[in-house]
Structure formats: structure tokens, C-alpha cells
Design a protein that fits this description.
This protein has about 375 residues and is an alpha/beta fold. The protein is built from eleven helices and 15 strands. About 40% of the residues lie in helices and about 20% in strands. The longest helix is centred in the N-terminal third of the chain and has 20 residues, at about 40-60.
Length: about 375
């Protein structure tokens, strides 16, 4: 049974403390995640992933012989709560690093805290603002909304579709992705003929989609957004009998979207991490072993299908642990430097190569174009497919 949402609810996991009652573990990792609330489908798999793998690492001796304490707070998607818990982790819990920020809004609330305290932060937000401009102590694992627009526009160009409409969420992520899509139109020869928007809590977008349907010349529709909104859009889209190709963002990279949209999800395309199609990749794909190992572990431990969001947390934790091993210390500057020099790290999001100018370390090839068929993800492997 799902525990009722309470902004103050704390999920604290003291993993690695000795049975004799050791006061605290050697390495302290803090997380502020949207475990409950409207972004729970992001935060819940992130929390579970961090718990599963922290326990697994500790059972194998920890990092450089030191065990890990993982401290998780639930912000329920509220940026004000994020600030409170982020401050608590830094000032009271004295964490060595942060793996936090399920949404763009919550990640942006954490960034100044981490920078001011000089505590390394790896966040899980979708918008490019969560990693650009580059801040010294801030990193991120998910592909950006800018990359998502580029991937969608590449696919549109391959399909010879150049006249589009957009219906965008008014949340921080939706607004950001909308702006980036607008900025790319000239480069890709795309014309936006009509735009509509919706608030995160809107349960009906029929009027907005009817206006799009009535606009002559439109060949495809893009929906920048996350949460329940994109499923609401898909259902109304089909109810109105719109047959144009519909594109979603990587913000719906969870089976929960397919379940919420139902039959209306059929044929929807989206750019996403290869994790969603791990079992459909050729054995020669360099990511496949990592993806299948994570998929197997997560699904065995939780009984739930993987989502790209849990994968973002896995990548963040593994990048951090690798940096801790290489730094040989929890000193914030040494740890920050080690994260920044991450090279050839194969994660669920792609092959990561960070630098002083790039605290994401992924290029456009890390995203795959997927299409939903028969209630499952399929890989769009050929141009114009």
C-alpha cells in the first residue's frame, strides 16, 4: 500500500552500520528525491535504485574499504521542501556528496546550495539548465531537453515532416524544452504552425488539441512535458481522432506512461535511454551488458519494470563511487575533480566522458528513438521507419 504523501516524511536508510552500533559510516551520501507526489514515478525508482545498490556495495566491502550511509529525504516534488532537506543534508547530516533533484524545479533549488557549500551534486533533472552553464560542483546524468528536441527534429527530418504544432506543459521542464525546440527550428527547417499549453494539474486538454486539429498544414505534434500531462494529452489526442504522428519527451520514459495512456500510447515516438529496450539491443552494443545487469537486478528486487529514471540514479551512484575510488578521499575538491575526469563510463544513459566544459558527458548518439507498439517500447532503427 502506498504511504500517504507527507512533505516531512523522511526515508532514511542507514546502510553499512555495524551490528555493534557504529555511530556513522565512513561515506555519507545524501539524496532529496520526489518519492511521493506528482513526480513519484521519477523519485520512487531513483530511491529504490540507490537503496538496492548501496546495500549491494556495502555487502561487498564498501568503497576503498569504507561502508556507505545513504540518507534519503522525500520532497514530494516541492522545491521549497527540496531546499529545506538539501540544507539539512549539508549542514546537519554532513554528507560528502548529493545524488538529488528528481525534477528540473527541484534540481534548480539544490544547485546554489551545493555550489555554496562546495558539496558535489549529481542531479537527475531533464532540463539543460541543470547542467549549463557549468557550475564547479554540479553534474547530471539524464539527457537534456535540448538533446531530446534535436533527436525528435532529426526523426522528423528523416520522415520529411517539417510543419508541426506543440502542446507544452507549463512546468519548468515543459517550458524549458519548448524554448529549446523553438531555438532549433531554423537549423532543422522546421516550422511551428501552432502552439498550445497546459498546467500540470489539468485533467482535460481537449480544447487545446481541437485548436491544433483545426490548424491547416500540420504534419506532426510535439508534447514537451512530464508527469501525468503527456498521458492526458495522448488520450485526448486519440479521442479527437487526430492521426498525425505524436512525439513525447524523454520525460515519459516509464511503463507508467504506457499504462496511463493505454491504447492511446500506440504509435507514440520519443527519444529515450537505451535501457528501455535493453533486451532488444544487439549483443555487440557496448551498453547491453550494463543495461541487462541493471534491469535484472532492479526487476528481481522490486518486481517492477525498469524506467529510465531509476537508470539515472544508477548512473549517478556509479559515477560517484568510481570517483571516490579514484580520489581515495571524500575531500570535496578531490572528489569533484575525480567526477569531472570521468571517462569511458558505460552507464544506462550512454557512454559518459566528462570534462571541465561538460558536466554531463553525453552526446546525441546516447539517445535512442523509440516507438510504442502493442504496449511496449520498440527501437526505431532505420531512418524513416
Amino acid at each position: 500500500m502506498r504511504v500517504a504523501t507527507r512533505l516531512w516524511r523522511v526515508f532514511a536508510v542507514a546502510i553499512g552500520l555495524a551490528a555493534a552500533g557504529q555511530a556513522r559510516a565512513d561515506i555519507r551520501i545524501g539524496a532529496v528525491l520526489s518519492v511521493t507526489g506528482p513526480a513519484a514515478y521519477l523519485g520512487e525508482p531513483e530511491k529504490k535504485t540507490l537503496e538496492i545498490y548501496t546495500a549491494d556495495i556495502n555487502s561487498k566491502g564498501g568503497v576503498n574499504g569504507h561502508k556507505i550511509t545513504l540518507i534519503v529525504y522525500d520532497d514530494a516534488g516541492n522545491p521549497n521542501q527540496t531546499r529545506i532537506f538539501g540544507t539539512r543534508l549539508i549542514e546537519n547530516d554532513k554528507v560528502d556528496a548529493l545524488l538529488a533533484g528528481s525534477t528540473t524545479a527541484t534540481a534548480l533549488a539544490l544547485i546554489p546550495l551545493a555550489e555554496n557549500a562546495r558539496v558535489p551534486l549529481i542531479n537527475f533533472a531533464g532540463a539543460v539548465q541543470a547542467v549549463s552553464p557549468v557550475r564547479r560542483y554540479v553534474f547530471k546524468t539524464p539527457h537534456t531537453d535540448l538533446m531530446a528536441c534535436e533527436k525528435i527534429f532529426e526523426d522528423l527530418r528523416q520522415r520529411h515532416l517539417t510543419r508541426i504544432a506543440m502542446i507544452s506543459g507549463l512546468d519548468a521542464f515543459g517550458a524549458s524544452m519548448r524554448g529549446h525546440c523553438q531555438s532549433l527550428t531554423a537549423r532543422y527547417g522546421i516550422a511551428i504552425l501552432h502552439e498550445e499549453s497546459y498546467s500540470p494539474g489539468d485533467g482535460d486538454v481537449t480544447a487545446q488539441l481541437a485548436a491544433i486539429k483545426a490548424t491547416p498544414g500540420i504534419q506532426a505534434v510535439i508534447n514537451p512535458g512530464f508527469g501525468n500531462g503527456p498521458a492526458t494529452v495522448a488520450r485526448a489526442y486519440r479521442q479527437l481522432g487526430i492521426t498525425l504522428p505524436l512525439y513525447q519527451s524523454h520525460g515519459v520514459g516509464s511503463k507508467q506512461y504506457i499504462e496511463l495512456a493505454g491504447a492511446a500510447a500506440e504509435g507514440v515516438r520519443l527519444p529515450a535511454a537505451a535501457l528501455l529496450v535493453a533486451d532488444k539491443l544487439p549483443d555487440s552494443d557496448p551498453q547491453k551488458k550494463v543495461l541487462m545487469d541493471y534491469k535484472t537486478m532492479y526487476e528481481q528486487k522490486t518486481g517492477q519494470p525498469v524506467s529510465s529514471f531509476g537508470g539515472h540514479a544508477y548512473d549517478g551512484l556509479m559515477i560517484l563511487l568510481d570517483a571516490l575510488r579514484r580520489a581515495g578521499s571524500t575531500d570535496s575538491t578531490k572528489l569533484r575533480d575525480a567526477i569531472e575526469t570521468t571517462r569511458n563510463f558505460i552507464g544506462t544513459g550512454g557512454v559518459v566522458n566528462m570534462s571541465a566544459a561538460d558536466h554531463l558527458g553525453l552526446d546525441l548518439s546516447a539517445m535512442r528513438m523509440l516507438e510504442i507498439r502493442n504496449g511496449d517500447w520498440t527501437l526505431v532503427s532505420t531512418p524513416g521507419h
